[in-house]
Amino acid sequence: MTHFFGYSQNLLKLDGKSKIELKIETFQIAPNPFTDNFTIYTDNIKETFQGEVMLINFLGQVVYQKQMTFDKDSSITYVNGFENLIPGIYNLIVKKDNEVMMYEFLVKS
C-alpha cells in the first residue's frame, strides 16, 4: 500500500492564496502499480462528501473523471474501469470543494 500523510501544510485553496486544513488525514492507494482498478482507503473523514476523482496522463490529458462519494462511515472507495488504459505514470487527483490532493500513480503493464 502507498501511504500519504501530512499533506495539509502543503496544499492551497484553488484561489492560490490561503492554506487549507484537510478533512481527510490519510489516503492510502492500493494496489500500486494497478491493472484495471484500485481502491482509495481514507482515515479520519469528519463528514461525508462528494469529491471528484481524476486520472491525468503524462501529456496532461484527463483519462478518467468521476464524481464519487467519500463516506465518513466507510473508509473504502473503489475506482474501476481502467481495462483499456495504457501502461505508464499517471497523476491521481481528488478534489473536494476548494481542496485538491494529487498523487503520482504507476500503472502496471
Question: Can you give a write-up of this model?
Answer:
The protein is mostly beta strands and 109 residues long. It has a single domain, classed as Immunoglobulin-like (Sandwich), CATH 2.60.40.10. Helices cover 0% and strands 50% of the residues. It contains no helices and 8 strands. The protein has strands at 2-5, 26-30, 37-43, 49-56, 62-70, 76-80, 89-96, 99-106. A 4-stranded antiparallel sheet has the order 1-2-3-6, with no helix packed on it. A 4-stranded antiparallel sheet has the order 5-4-7-8, with no helix packed on it. A hairpin with a 6-residue loop joins β2 (26-30) and β3 (37-43).
Quick synopsis:
The chain is mainly β and 109 residues long.
Name the CATH class: Mainly Beta
Order of helices and strands: EEEEEEEE
Which fold name fills CATH's third level, the topology? Immunoglobulin-like
Largest sheet: 4 strands, antiparallel
The total tally of domains equals: 1
Q: Would you identify the CATH H-level superfamily?
A: Immunoglobulins
What percentage of amino acids are in beta strands? over 45%
CATH-derived architecture: Sandwich
Query: If helices are DSSP runs of H or I spanning 4 or more residues, what is the number of helices?
Result: 0
Helix content: under 10%
Overall 3D shape: globular
Label the structural class. mainly beta
